[in-house]
Amino acid sequence: MVDGGDAARWLHLNAPRGGPDELSLLVSRAAPAVGATEIVIYLADYTQSSLVPLVGPGPPRAELTIETTLAGRAFTSLQVQRAPDHPDRLWVPLLLGCERLGVLEIVSPAAGDPALDRPAWEVAVAVAQLLVNRRLYGDVVERVRRRLPMQVAAEIVWGLLPPLTFATDELVITAILEPCYDVGGDVFDYALNGDVLSVGLFDTCGHGIKASALASLVVSAYRNARRTGLDLVDTAISIDRWVRSEHPGTFATALLAELDRRTGLLRIINAGHPGAMLLRDGRAVRALPGPTALPLGLGNLSARRPRVHEEGLHPGDRILAYTDGITDARSDDGERFGLDRLVDFVERALNDQLPSPETMRRLVRAVLAHQQDELDDDATALFLEWQPPHLPLAHLEHLTVPHGTIAST
């Protein structure tokens, strides 16, 4: 029986000896250990519309579209895919925990044998770990993922962001940001400390470098307050003071939230931001209360401290937060994408039992299509799900790798 563990161990032992540019060669050399003749790395581009081959020693590979290929189906469904017309190959999702990086193409005479699935997953996990660990030492991964030149403002923002998706047994958080190459004002952050997940979604005023510089300050102030141990109210006050001190006359709208993953208690401050939606049993139940504080940077205009809204979530509840670039996107005839269209789209995605990251990816594709791929403002959406571990994981079954291990959400 093929043992993917041997290949994974070999990769981890040998990766430190080379730079990121040598990962493709290293991975191809591990192919015989799993009975394969080739292993090719494909990375998702920034827009998550294409899978781009990381150049290796084998025959050249073409870029693949996520929407219309088996490789794309592996990426979106998080399941191994086999090609009936190419019985010698399979496509394996390339995941680190729950962050979707791309896919692996494994070419093997045994590709049609389901017994190859587990070794293939083991190799894919090892490759994903190497990509994340080694990509900081060079630019090859970034260059492959970029299909257009990235503006400096976007470079700043992407350098601030955590992974787009994170999950534990109790919760899932996933987000999406567009336009990828020219963003400026929207940014988000999250952190899990003990049983409390902290989430911040920010929309800074303006565009370009000035907006991204403000976004950098806002996120840094948010992290500093959180790591200092400030509560939610004092965190909002701290960010507000930093914005007024360093960028007077500007502001950022924000949603600041804390979710207790044991109890489902959600505490949230809405600082002049568009509302968030509560979804339950696949349907939008209601909008959470509107602004409970002034936008960050304008706190001096009111003597009242930010107010915290508390919401007791039910198991399986989801929170959808967004910036106004989503709802304000307009078609050629001036029709807004709007809140009703947003809610309808998410409800249909939930009923189709799509993984949360795929729901966000399809949402931003729909917003782009509504505005003919030309957004006037950053469009950012964030999805938070609470699922206590003692409940059935039916909605995660399609994310299960061989032998019942949850691969991602």
Structure keywords:
single chain, 409 residues, alpha+beta, Beta-Lactamase, Phosphatase 2c, domain 1, 2 domains, 6-stranded antiparallel beta sheet, 11 helices, 19 strands, 27% strand, globular, disordered C terminus
Question: In words, what does this structure look like?
Answer:
The chain is an alpha+beta fold and 409 residues long. The strands form four sheets. It has a six-stranded antiparallel sheet, with helices on both faces. The chain has a six-stranded antiparallel sheet with strand order 7-8-17-16-13-14. Strands 9-10-11-12-15 form a five-stranded antiparallel sheet, covered by helices on one side. Strand 13 and strand 14 form a beta hairpin. The chain folds into two domains: 142 residues, 2-Layer Sandwich (Beta-Lactamase); 252 residues, PPM-type phosphatase domain (Phosphatase 2c, domain 1, 4-Layer Sandwich), CATH 3.60.40.10. It has eleven helices and 19 strands. The longest helix is centred in the middle third of the chain and has 21 residues. Helix 7 runs antiparallel to helix 8. One of its GO terms (molecular function) is phosphatase activity. This is Serine phosphatase RsbU, regulator of sigma subunit. Pfam families: SpoIIE. Keywords: Hydrolase.
